[in-house]
């Protein structure tokens, strides 16, 4: 059962033929041609994300222990224009909620929120902002080294909602949160 499930995932993931062609061209002609092709493809067909000016990265989640059916994923999102994260989904679980985590009287409390603001041009790391994507009803244990597909629903300004595909890499059960490197990068640019 879990084997067929994992196969299902891979069906979801990521490289459709158009994207494979882009990868091939990337190798053949270098980044400029690939970028032009990628822009054209995303405009003409699927990846509304690129056309919408939204980038995601750094997605990760801890491997789950036996019997654990929930886990919180972290991710960074940068939107060119002011936008709002309003939902997420994954084929790996029944439902994904947007959660905030706060300390109250020495207790960690998680609560669902309906929206997470994405200010224009600002890289928002969910974890650093006190949020995570709560994956509820995991269909199979998450194993280190796997990649979990995520689809984000993001409202652009006051306008339409786009679906953005991203991933969370499954890290070991004891993985520490990766350090955000924003400051380092800033320092390097200044030097
Ligand atoms: Cu949670």
Name the CATH architecture of the largest domain. Answer: Sandwich
- How many discrete structural domains? 2
- Which stretches are low in confidence, meaning pLDDT under 50 for 5 or more residues running? 1-48, 181-191
**SS summary, helix count:** 5
Main β-sheet, in a few words? 10 strands, mixed
Task: Give helix % range.
Answer: 25-40%
How large a portion of the residues is in β-strands, by DSSP E? 35-45%
What is the CATH class of the largest domain? Mainly Beta
Q: Could you tell me which ligands this complex binds, including any ions or cofactors? A: copper (II) ion
Class from secondary-structure proportions: alpha+beta
| Rg (CA only) | 18 Å
Order of helices and strands: HHHHEEEEEEEEEEH
| CATH fold field value of the largest domain | Immunoglobulin-like
Task: Using the alpha-carbon principal axes, give the shape.
Answer: globular
Can you say what the CATH homologous superfamily of the largest domain is?
Answer: PCu(A)C copper chaperone
